[in-house]
Amino acid sequence: MLAILYEGNVHTYRVIHTDGRQHSADPNPTWMGESVGHWEGDTLVVDVIAMNDKTWLDTAGHVHSDALHVIERYTRVPTRTRLSTNSRSTIRRRIRSSGARRTRWWRIRTGI
């Protein structure tokens, strides 16, 4: 299991199960959805479903339905100073679309 703490203005967390389990048969939609992950070499692949329709896809406020399905790929780049994320979103039913997003996080050394 991997837990991610979000320290923005919401102070919440997300759990990614990495024990080989499958998604629940009928998951209850939540803000963070249901995440299951597995490793493909040095990349953590996370499959996310069951997000409620109260969140946005981005900071521009693009909406989605509760049928959102996201595949995220987390890879630490060779310089070991940043984490690269690629995600593919698919929305079925009410809004028919798909898209991709790439994010990079930089490692900040704090002396700890």
Describe this structure in words.
This protein is an all-beta fold and 112 residues long. The chain has one domain. Helix content is 0%, strand content 48%. It has no helices and seven strands. A seven-stranded mixed beta sheet has the order 1-2-3-4-5-6-7, with no helix packed on it. A hairpin with a 5-residue loop joins strand 1 and strand 2.
> Percent helix among the residues?
under 10%
Q: Give me the secondary-structure category.
A: mainly beta
Looking at the structure, what is the overall shape? globular
How many distinct helices? 0
Q: Strands of the biggest beta sheet: in what spatial order?
A: 1-2-3-4-5-6-7
Mean pLDDT: 78
Q: Report on the biggest sheet.
A: 7 strands, mixed
Q: Report the uncertain regions.
A: 93-97
Strand residue percentage: over 45%
- Elements, N to C (H/E): EEEEEEE
List the keywords.
mainly beta, 48% strand
Short account of what is shown:
The protein is mostly beta strands and 112 residues long.
